[in-house]
Amino acid sequence: MSGEARRGARWFTGAGTAMRRTSLPGVKAVVRRESASVLQLRRPPEPPSGTGGTEGRPYDRLEEGTAVLRVVRATGADGRDGYRLNGWCGSLTIDCAAGPTRLPAPSIALANLNVAGEYPSELLRGIRHWSKNQTELAHWLNRIRDRHGDTLRLIVWDDTGYELPWELFWVPPDAAHSLEGGLLGALLVMARWTTVHDSDHDLPKARGECRGRVLAYLHADMAADSQVFEPYAHHVHDEMDHFLRALDLPEDDTGLVYLGCHGTYGDAVMRLTLGNRTWAEFDDQDMRVLRTDRSLVCLNACHSGRFVHNHGQGEEALRGFVELFLRKGAGGCIVAGGLIGNLEARRFAQQLMSEVAGRPDSPVPRTLRDFRARAVAAYGPLAVIPTTRNDDEQVDTVGQKRVLRLLYAFMLQYYGHPLTTLRLVAGKGHNAWGGGPW
């Protein structure tokens, strides 16, 4: 990395404990970081290929107001790796082959937001440039927005592993239909999905009604997350062994399983960790609570929403903590698409979970949309992106942090059914660290 790149990253403050955790070789970034469900759907006669060389089975007929955008790896006519788009929303469809504007775009991944990464303003500009190249997709999105208005629900089923920032896709305005432009995740009720291996999952087939207590593990650095759970019945552990044992013993109904801890990411499954456990060590757990209660899982940890292609273990499959917890039975997952190591980023996650818990009748993706929309409003006009430097050649720290706060709000992603809700039960204010009141 050049000296200029190092100087450019100095505006980023507060990552403190994050960078002292680079203890594993190959780790790229380390820290903690309204209607019936989609049923009675027939499969397309010639579906695109999915991860692992098996047939993808996206639905081509959905309930009214639900759309699916399927994104899979594909090779373009020029032989370069890229991705193909297939979308369904009633009679409105989209089918775009891989091509010169549908290629891997590593420079716009939110994982670049770290102390050695890009200026937030440059990342936001890069995402805007990528979005402007997707004219067919933008047109399809505005067509389905025009047809369904606020009742529209979009599921983005992305099996590319390219870390494309769909929540930040810039949707252009459509004056002819009185549609405002903006960032996709702040305009629509939006959920993500990934292929769940070793199961019969295609898309989420039933909405989750996650009800009950909170079962949580909190690393000491994230103890402040416990404030979110004060009004609710909760069992909070500060030791991973105790937490995992509780996760395997269904007792009281569990609505939310929450991990607040550090996370690591690397180029192989063995580099993925949450707290002091590897991906494989989590995979060894039965997690009967998830199968029994279909709990919502929140992984408030850096990189918890990222995937790797598991070629090193001899399979053509995307693996990550999202796929793992969905396969174990989670009713949905809220995760981070990158680094949330500083205090402000963690507070964003705490605020989101407080809002999700406080709106039991609102589907989780709707609460997320409203959360992001407020972040956009706080940012100001999207057309105005700060420059990296002021006229005095100094980094515009104020402007960069304003963009960073916007990106943090969109880094939190939801995987699951777009109508899943969370209803936590009221508690007596006791925790697992000695039984005293909060």
Q: How much strand?
A: 15-25%
Radius of gyration: 21 Å
Q: What would you call the shape?
A: globular
The number of helices is 11
Largest sheet report: 7 strands, mixed
> How many β strands by DSSP?
20
Task: Work out the helicity level.
Answer: 25-40%
Helices and strands: which structural class? alpha/beta
Low-confidence stretches: 1-58, 429-438
Please tell me the overall pLDDT: 84
Distance, first to last CA = 46 Å
Key features of this structure:
single chain; 438 residues; alpha/beta; seven-stranded mixed β-sheet; five-stranded mixed β-sheet; 11 helices; globular
Structure commentary:
With 438 residues, this protein is an alpha/beta fold. Helix content is 25%, strand content 22%. Strands 9, 10, 11, 15, 18, 19 and 20 form a 7-stranded mixed β-sheet that branches. Helix 10 runs antiparallel to helix 11. The model is unreliable at 1-58 and 429-438 (pLDDT under 50).
